[in-house]
Amino acid sequence: MCLGIPGKVIKVFEQDGTPMASVDFDGVEQTVCIATTPEAQVGQYILVHAGFSLNVLSDTEATETLKILRDLREFNANLDEEAKVQ
Amino acid sequence: MTGSLDKLRDASLTKAIMAEIRRITTQPWNIMEICGGQTHAIMQYGLDQLLPKEITLIHGPGCPVCVTSLEAIEQALQIAARPDVIFTTFGDMLRVPGNQADLFTARSQGADVRVVYSPLDSLKFARENPEKQVVFFAIGFETTAPTIASTILSAEKAGIENFSILPANVLVPPAMRAILSNPVNRVQGFLAAGHVCAVMGYHEYPPIAEQYRIPIVVTGFEPVDLAAGILMTVQQLESGQHEVTNAYPRFVTREGNQTAQRMIAQVFEPVDRQWRGIGAIPLSGLGLRADYAAFNALNRFELSQTALRESPLCIAGQVLSGVAKPHDCPAFAKDCSPLHPLGAPMVSSEGACAAYYRYHRISE
Question: Does domain B11-311 have CATH number 2.60.120.330?
Answer without folding.
Answer: no
